[in-house]
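stage 2 :: seqdesign
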């Protein structure tokens, strides 16, 4: 019997560490966004939801894979985020792909609006999590990666994985 038999693996420890940094419970992580975009800055935002959406999110029935953020007037909205209908809500259910308003301070909204308009950056949701019983969205101010950047990132990740594997075999 080994000494590590009862301990969680590295990936589980990394996930728990990320969870502690973000909040109480990580609901959804948009891994595709980190592959497609170079994230320059991260901002935590509240989100305006209906009751059936909150219950569905707490059941982890949400997807941020195709989601993005966009300004409408002077307000920021989360678009194309799929929150599945809550089966017990019946008549008071919500449409799964409706636009949801993000809650930020005015100075943060103004700064993000300037960055998007002048610098050609985009806003993407990176994660959704619970923090003090409130649902929060982690937004990334990002620049799109070129194909060669994606390939370089994949190659670098593979080399790191091989080095870690070699170090484990050596011990």
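stage 2 :: out
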């Amino acid at each position: 019997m080994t000494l590590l038999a009862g301990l969680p693996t590295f990936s589980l420890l990394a996930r728990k560490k990320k969870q502690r940094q973000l909040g109480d419970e990580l609901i959804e992580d948009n891994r595709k966004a980190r592959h497609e975009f170079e994230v320059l800055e991260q901002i935590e935002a509240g989100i305006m939801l209906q009751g059936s959406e909150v219950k569905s999110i707490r059941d982890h029935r949400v997807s941020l894979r195709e989601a993005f953020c966009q300004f409408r007037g002077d307000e920021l909205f989360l678009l194309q985020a799929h929150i599945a209908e809550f089966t017990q809500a019946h008549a008071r259910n919500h449409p799964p792909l409706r636009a949801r308003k993000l809650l930020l301070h005015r100075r943060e909204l103004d700064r993000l609006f300037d960055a998007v308009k002048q610098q050609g950056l985009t806003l993407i949701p990176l994660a959704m999590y619970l923090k003090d019983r409130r649902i929060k969205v982690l937004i990334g101010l990002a620049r799109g990666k070129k194909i060669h950047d994606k390939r370089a990132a994949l190659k670098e990740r593979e080399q790191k994985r091989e080095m870690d594997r070699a170090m484990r075999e050596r011990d």
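stage 3 :: structure notes
- The longest helix spans residues 147-170.
- The first strand starts at residue 25 and ends at 29.
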